[in-house]
Amino acid sequence: MRVMGIDCGGEYTGFGVVEQMNSGDLICLEVGAIRLPPQEKLEKRLDQIFLRLTEIIERTQPEVVAIEDVFHAANSKTALKLGHVRGVAMLSAARCGLAVVAYAPLTVKSAVVGYGKAEKSQVQMMVTRLLKLHTVPEPADAADALAIAICHLHTAATLARYAAKAH
Length: 167
Known about the structure:
Blueprint: E1 2-7, E2 12-20, E3 26-35, H1 42-60, E4 64-68, H2 76-95, E5 99-103, H3 105-112, H4 120-130, H5 140-166
Parallel strand pairs: 1-4, 4-5
Antiparallel strand pairs: 1-2, 2-3
Helix pairs in contact: 1-2, 3-5, 4-5
């Protein structure tokens, strides 16, 4: 299974495409972040996110897109901007015919680190280890996107095991 994880952010939107091989090994196919210049108008930044994510989806051909669920932001203005970015990410996936699944931040951290209140540095370290990367993904938003993809792969594998036992 190939999953694209997206970590929506106001300054950076992280993305990562992870594939789980038949052996169970996880492979990072692509990782990065879309930097959004703060001086740019919001609609221009949203357009850039849409275009870049669509291009990455078309090139890497994931089967599903996983994003982080809405969480409580420091203030309403930040939450609104984050909502715009999240909506554009979902639209990009939908335009490419992909389903979008969302995971709570605690769920993502638990799946990757084993502790729901893990620090960003712990997430980065575990993502690096799980994907056998030579360097830590930077910025942290890129590592978070990989973590979201890994979370979905772990969740999908668990659901598949339960379904197999039910039959």
